[in-house]
Amino acid sequence: MLDVLTGFAIIFVVIGVGFFLGHRGVIGHGEARLQFNRTAFWAATPALIFSSVATSDTSAFTSPVVAVIAIASVATMALYGMLSALFFRRSGAETMAGAAAASYYNSVNIGLPIATYVIGDATFVVPALVLQMAVLSPFIIAGLNAQGTSLRSISSSVVSGLTAPVVIAAIAGFIVSAADWQVPEVIMAPLELLGGASIPIILMSFGASLTGKGLLANDRLPTITATVLKLIVMPAIALAAGLALGLSGNELYAALILSALPTAQNVYNYAATYQSGETVARDTVFLTTFLSLPAMLAIAGFFG
Q1: Which residue range(s) make up the domain with 133?
Q2: What biological-process terms (Gene Ontology) are attached (predicted)?
Q3: CATH code, domain carrying 99
Q4: In whole angstroms, how far apart are CA 227 and each of 4, 94, 120, 123?
Q5: What is the pTM of this model?
């Protein structure tokens, strides 16, 4: 459990560095800060995803645990979209940012230590990562990039989602892993080095963004809704889906813990890159990162 707490501490320390640098003006506002997100989106994060997926074991991709996580993710996104249409009345792009914040969990820098030290098995983390990057990310990016309802606008958004660097990296990594190919070290080593910059860049940009308007200053209701959906409703949906599919014991426990992970910083990175729904994404990431640990401890206590 100490390693899990260390994982959370590392995140908050790097966010704090970003906040300090933003406060001192080292990281500028607006376009200056967005360069961090664009660098991560177009280069560092794809490198991290490819190098992680390409060396993974694809046998876990057919596990019912992955199916449960997929059901919970899609159902939670749809539920947020319905609530937004009824109560928030935000644009399509802003709604997509909130839906992603409610369902897109941190499967890397928190998911890996959580899976290793709380679940006792990191088998399902990489399949969950591929599910998010290759299946959910195209829809999220297309929604964030939507500029209208015309056929041309819709087709452009779909293309942008399918050809996003993170999506291509996930698919390419999966192909390499499934084919059991060995990527030459001269290629993999630079990718791993570049990928190592992804998380610090995103976290520092996130911290710098906190020097602007305070937490919950805007989009309070959408943010609280996304937070509740992420930490309470999504695990509840995973529980129902897991029981329906016959999961029990460690498999059901793993599905619930992974579903209760906090919102991924990638959601903020997507929102900042496309400049849509940045506030709700940022604030939900912040709140769920603080509140997810009690939620996961409650699940762990329930399972003994």
Answers
A1: 1-303
A2: transmembrane transport
A3: 1.20.1530.20
A4: 21, 15, 26, 26
A5: 0.82
pLDDT tens digits for range 67-87: 999 999 999 999 999 999 999
Q: How deeply is 17 buried, as exposed, middle or buried, from its count of CB atoms within 10 A (0-12, 13-18, 19+)?
A: middle
pLDDT at res. 176: 92
Q: Are 97 and 281 in contact (CB under 8 A)?
A: yes
Tell which residue, 162, 166, 147, has the closest CA to residue 275.
147
* 246: its two tokens: 């016959």
Reading the block at residue 235, the tokens are: 């695990």
| Residue with token string 């860049």 | 201
Spell 27-36 as b/e; 16+ CB within 10 A means b.
Answer: beeeeebbeb
Nearest Cα residue to 200 out of 8, 10, 9 = 10
